[in-house]
Amino acid sequence: MSQFDFLKPKSRQIEFEQFDDRILTFVLERERSFLTCISCGGCTATCSAGNLTSFNIRKIGLSLRRGSINDLSDEIQKCMFCGKCTLVCPRDINIRNVVLLIKKRIAQLESEKTL
Question: 90: which of 41, 73, 111, 115 lies 20 to 30 Å off by Cα?
Fold first, then answer.
């Protein structure tokens, strides 16, 4: 069966043993509009931080939904909180609040780790 490994690229696989939904659950409890995100990419296209760095808000949303939050902390620090993403969102998702909630939950998880 190993000759068919090309059908399962590692970047698209969800490892359920490593799936961590603590941040996603936190965000969805406080910002229900995030459920309606269709990953259209409008937020990424207008992002000021994305034009200057490798920041990609759409990629953050996908990582959050896949439960792969290992690199999320470093990536989320690049956000400038300009709010352009919220203005262009066709689903009226408060993306700036989503990013703020992600930062808040990461800080909580890191402080729990040190205790």
Answer: 73
